[in-house]
Structure formats: structure tokens, C-alpha cells
Please model this.
Amino acid sequence: MEKESRKPTLLSWKTLEHVHRPRTKDWYWGLGLTTIAGIVIAILIGNALIGVMIVIIAFTILLYTFHPPITLNIAVNEDGIKINNKMYPFENVHAYDIHDYKEETSLFIVLKEGISPLIIIPINKDIIALDDIHEIFQEFIPQEHMRTPLIHQIMHYLNI
Model:
């Protein structure tokens, strides 16, 4: 059972899990045709496993496009960062960075360990000032320049 912190909240905001981008019929046609082309190539090279993986990936992308973003409640206190009901203590956080990538601004949090060591939280600059985030976070964890992960850039480019 997670211990609830009694320390005052230094910073809090709400944000969407991801930016929802509308997709056209052409986008869905492109996904379907790319999937069919991948299956045909898999058959031609005689590798059924690649064909199955392509179908699974396409189905997962399709499901993801229908998944509406959930609202995240972010709160920062002297103990750490709380995202909805999950607390990330500062002692388990390696570093942070803020990225302005295209029209999206995100807070990158790198954990010291775990299955998913990078947490990306979208930031709405109209709701929360980036200077406020820097001011609070610099007290507890170092800022470290990070590159936007390649998979994140690819997903943005493909409008996924």
C-alpha cells in the first residue's frame, strides 16, 4: 500500500495523456494498404512470422487511433511527482528535461530503474508556465539535455 504524502503541493496541473490528432479516411486507407503490402512481402520472402507481426502491429495502431486520451492529474511536492495515483519519488528520478517538439511541449522524466525508464508528460503552456516547472524541479533533480526518442518522432510523423 502506497503511503500518502502530507506535504503541500508545490505545483499541479491537468493534461491529456497524448495529443489527439484527427485522421482522414486516406490515413486509414494508407494503413490498410501498407499492411497488405507488408503481408505480401512476408509471403514472398516466405516468413509467416513477419506477416503475423505486421497484422498485430497494424491492429494495435488501429486500436490506438480509437483510444481517446485520458486526463492525467499531475502534482509535484517535496517527495516527488504524482501522476494520477502513482507516485514517483525524487530519489528514484535520475533527471528531467522540457522539450518543445513541433507544436507539442513535453516534460521528460528519466527514472533510475524500471521497465519504462522514460515518462513523457504533455504540457499545455497556456495552463502551466515552463519557468515554474524548472524552478520547482531544479530544487530536487538535475536537468539533463535529452533527445526526443526516435519512436516518438516516427509516431508524430506518421500521425499515430
